[in-house]
Specification:
Elements: H1 2-14, H2 18-44, H3 50-57, H4 75-106, E1 113-116, H5 123-129, E2 135-140, H6 155-169, H7 180-186, H8 193-202, E3 205-215, E4 221-223, E5 233-242, E6 247-254, H9 266-273, E7 277-281, H10 294-303, E8 304-309, E9 324-330, E10 358-364, H11 415-420
Parallel strand pairs: 1-2, 1-7, 2-6, 7-8
Antiparallel strand pairs: 3-4, 3-5, 5-6, 8-10, 9-10
Length: about 425
Amino acid sequence: MIAQVRNLLARSHTRGNALEKTRIGFVAVLIASFVVATTARAQNNQIATADDTARFLAGMPLSANSPLAQLAQDPIAKQHAAYLDSAFGNVEKIQMSKIRVWASANLSAPKPVMFYMFGGPDFLYADAFFPNATTYVLQGLEPVGQIPDLLKMPRWSALQSLRNIQGSLRSILTVTYFITVQMNTDLSSSGTLPILYVFLARSGNVIHDVSLVHLDEQGVLQSGEGPRPPPPARGVKIIVSEKDGPQKTIYYFSTNLADQRGKNIALLQFGKSLGQGDSFVKSASYLLHNANFSQVRNFLLENSSTILQDATGIPLRFFDPTKWQLRGFGQLMIPFQRNRPAPIEFGIGYQWRPNQSSILLATRGTEAAESTAVAPKEATPRQPDVVRQPIVRARPAQRTKNEPPPSQLLPFPLFPFFLFGQPQP
């Protein structure tokens, strides 16, 4: 078609008739405009797969024929890739490799379902501790956002999203947890999906399908974002696999888990439909110590085979010693545990520095091994008859907006917090 334009222009110069020149020039302009429009439309009609998008956002290599390959050559994208290569390399060396070794040794009977309440889009730690799960249920307050389509975004906007991702990941890649204020700022427009994409790609997963979902009042999964007013929980369902491994399903739901007086919480009803699973609690602002979160606390106790948690998890007094075996690791010494707690070489939660962290492993079962012995029921320490000040918040929330900086973190051992609930202010 370009050759036709050239021929028409050449004819217009060889003929002397002015009218003929004008007519031929007009036709040439129309053809050229059609060529430009067709080219632009073809570019706009290109579709980047969810896996391509995830790899671009994660700063990972793309295939040569990827529609995002050209964008990945931008200096900002290259800087982003180098930054994440370094950051994830450090966290792999300091954290993830050691967590996987610990999990392999201590989480010997994993369930196919894994619950991670209050963790936001933190698939990174969910996968490190529970790599054998085939269904992950993650929950936070942050919105899901729309499924990202970088080819329909202005170039500057697509590149700006990379800077937002760096800001959002900075805390979890250094102090092991998200800071809510930063998340609210960095992900106010894009939601949590870009962060999930990065974690999935960096964890070696291939994304096969992504769809927006929601839960109705009974906790039944429905397709789409849901009607107005908003449904009880909006979420996303992502199907992934590691190389040639089995497919896995990751759910992330944006919903508040504060107690709903007189009715069930949709996400907890959905969780019950999945059967018994393993649960993980980390950096949860001590909300499970609060009376206003009794429904989710009871859900975890009734629907978990294993509960792995830091000091912000369920206080010890809620674990029935006839049903649970308890074992502390790191700086946590469980009362009546006969052996000293085994050390851990990684940091976790608000006490994120190595050799300062502690975790509790609660396993459902009636036969307690010597290393996991707990007190008989009558010897279980009772909650003191003291009115403890609850967490004060303007509205029900799941995490405080300002987690304590490292300099203000409380000293160990932390077992009194597990026993008696929230520490005195």
